[in-house]
Design a protein that fits this description.
Length: 304
């Protein structure tokens, strides 16, 4: 059961969430011709009349770029202004998640992106931990990640998430918490909605962009933090067998934050994960605006 924030931005105005409805004939519903973003907001621990948003500018830029795949010109500054107004309209008091979504809103049946109406909405819901901070179990999915040559993987296109949905359900119904997808070359790609990191011999390793991964914003943040800590970082193709002998493995994403993996298939990973915990502690501190060196990553919204 989700607790949705009371107001949504829909058809260029704020309306009660329950009134923000689309037709069953909406083009995007039939063809997956939408793109979305997702970002977290938290009340400022030091001032409950402020909301903190982590890397708002990057989230808005990525959604604007995703919209371009739909032939929709939606500037990042327009998205950012709507999100700030959305927060002030809703006056949230606990941690929450924002879902902005761009889509083909015509009531047509032809699969196309030209000469078709597009639109943009925003809603939100209260959200705590998406995955257990104590750690999760994962299986290697039988479903493979799409290839960029046949799908625009640099965008968060809604149609792509059928593969994520199949993989997630397959994992849960076979007794695991999450799925790890391989790419078409059999290399480790990502989880159902998260990037993946491996620690081996003091190095932090993650699949590179040429492995058909999503360009995760939390992923980018973790790489920057690791480099600032002096941790060796390697972005490269990652073999499945490396997961089973890793010192630490964790997932990252806006919803998941940093989620350690306890077990992959029938391989139990070490209980001690010092590098994961170091990065997670630092990320939480930054999100709560307690790190002066990273305050440029945090956008403060005054509710008054």
């Amino acid at each position: 059961m989700h607790n949705f924030l009371p107001f949504a931005y829909f058809e260029q105005q704020f309306v009660p969430f329950e009134d923000a409805n689309i037709s069953i004939a909406t083009h995007a519903l039939h063809y997956g011709t939408g793109a979305f973003g997702g970002l977290r907001g938290i009340p400022n621990p030091a001032n409950n009349r402020q909301i903190l948003l982590f890397r708002l500018d990057r989230h808005c830029k990525r959604l604007s770029q995703s919209a371009r795949f739909l032939h929709y010109d939606l500037p990042a500054d327009k998205i950012q202004a709507v999100i700030i107004d959305f927060i002030r309209k809703n006056q949230p008091q606990i941690s929450f998640y924002i879902r902005p979504f761009v889509y083909t809103s015509d009531l047509g049946i032809a699969p196309r992106l030209h000469k078709i109406e597009k639109n943009f909405f925003v809603y939100g819901l209260e959200l705590g931990d998406y995955l257990s901070p104590a750690g999760v179990s994962c299986r290697i999915s039988s479903w493979h990640r799409q290839e960029d040559q046949s799908f625009p993987l640099r965008g968060k296109i809604s149609g792509a998430y059928i593969t994520s949905s199949l993989a997630k359900t397959e994992a849960v119904e076979s007794g695991f918490d999450e799925a790890i997808l391989l790419n078409s070359q059999g290399k480790v790609c990502e989880a159902s909605g998260m990037n993946i990191f491996v620690v081996r011999d003091g190095q932090l390793i993650t699949p590179s962009f040429d492995q058909d991964i999503l360009e995760g914003i939390t992923r980018d943040s973790i790489l920057a933090l690791a480099r600032d800590f002096g941790i060796p970082v390697v972005e490269r193709p990652l073999d499945k067998s490396e997961l089973f002998i890793a010192d630490e493995v964790f997932l990252s994403g806006t919803a998941a934050k940093i989620a350690p993996i306890n077990r992959i298939e029938n391989y139990t990973l070490p209980a001690e994960r010092p590098l994961t915990e170091k990065l997670r502690t630092q990320l939480v501190s930054i999100v709560e605006n307690r790190q002066p060196d990273y305050q440029h990553w945090v956008h403060v919204v005054d509710l008054d």
